[in-house]
Design a protein that fits this description.
Helices cover 65% and strands 0% of the residues. The chain is mostly helical and 102 residues long.
Length: 102
């Protein structure tokens, strides 16, 4: 795995450890991840809701909805905001690992 991808994964892991230092709620996390992924794409590391992301969602036991993503399944299963934040960050990290594992 390239050094830059490892740094991206490390950064997401640090955010997952102390999420409230970076955002206050699920909406702000989604906005932060959208900007983060856009910046990574601009530097040649595309990401987002691709096959690697969908695979990470399904492997973690969640239902993927093409028009809505995984968030409705997390809410439907009764996860509180802190648990949703942790799960979304975990899925993001796993997707990065899958996407650039070669």
């Amino acid at each position: 795995m390239e050094d830059i991808v490892q740094k991206i994964i490390e950064t997401l892991s640090i955010i997952r450890l102390r999420p409230k230092m970076y955002f206050r709620n699920v909406g702000e996390l989604k906005a932060m991840l959208a900007g983060f992924n856009m910046a990574c794409g601009l530097f040649g590391y595309p990401s987002g809701f691709d096959d690697a992301y969908r695979q990470a969602v399904v492997e973690r036991g969640w239902k993927w909805l093409p028009a809505a993503g995984v968030l409705p399944a997390l809410i439907e299963n009764g996860l509180d905001d802190d648990s949703i934040v942790e799960e979304l960050l975990t899925i993001e990290i796993e997707a990065w690992k899958k996407r650039y594992s070669n």
